[in-house]
């Protein structure tokens, strides 16, 4: 697929998954804007400024991939109020403001992608605050798919592969994924 002439903005694009996404989109020919650190995406004004800068520098925006996130692996009883507030500010609040500004900036037919986490589907201990803070992103992204449907902006579903299913099962109790019937028991 060629992305020649398209402009992609990757939040959290300086390392890890964001850097890989940026590299792949660049290899496909996209012009790349990266947010790594600086203006806070946890404030509406920070996200507004970031998008204003990208539009000033590139003139248009076709793709936004939000990979901003902060992971915390800690027992529930050791999670402080500050830990909780930080996790929700970075993982939920920033994703909301990034998506809000992306919806204003991305042209119809463009794409807005919010990266959540496979841990939402796994049954894994010690990531309580992380999983809890990423859950709202999944739900508001699903809701926005209806709001933005006529504009063709959101792609929600990643392809499930045998590897991804095996990974999720490896972290699950009894080595299997939860079935709907399990919830009532």
What is the element layout, followed by pairings?
Elements: E1 7-11, H1 16-27, E2 31-35, H2 44-58, E3 63-66, H3 81-105, E4 111-114, H4 128-147, H5 162-170, H6 180-183
Parallel strand pairs: 1-2, 1-3, 3-4
Helix pairs in contact: 2-3, 3-4
Could you characterize what this model shows?
- By secondary structure, this protein is of the alpha/beta class.
- It has one domain (7-158): Rossmann fold.
- Helix content is 46%, strand content 10%.
- The protein is globular, with a radius of gyration of 17 Å.
- The N and C termini lie far apart (46 Å).
- InterPro entries: NAD(P)-bd_dom_sf, SDR_fam.
- Keywords: Oxidoreductase.
**Beta-strand segment tally:** 4
CATH topology: Rossmann fold
Biggest sheet: strands, sense, closure?
4 strands, parallel
Classify the secondary structure makeup into a structural class: alpha/beta
Count every helix, treating DSSP H or I runs of 4 or more residues as helices. 6
- CATH architectural designation: 3-Layer(aba) Sandwich
* Rg calc: 17 Å
**Average pLDDT, to the nearest integer?**
84
- Given as residue ranges, the uncertain stretches (5+ residues, pLDDT < 50) are none
Family: Belongs to the short-chain dehydrogenases/reductases (SDR) family.
Protein name: Short-chain dehydrogenase
GO molecular function: oxidoreductase activity, acting on CH-OH group of donors
Keywords: Oxidoreductase
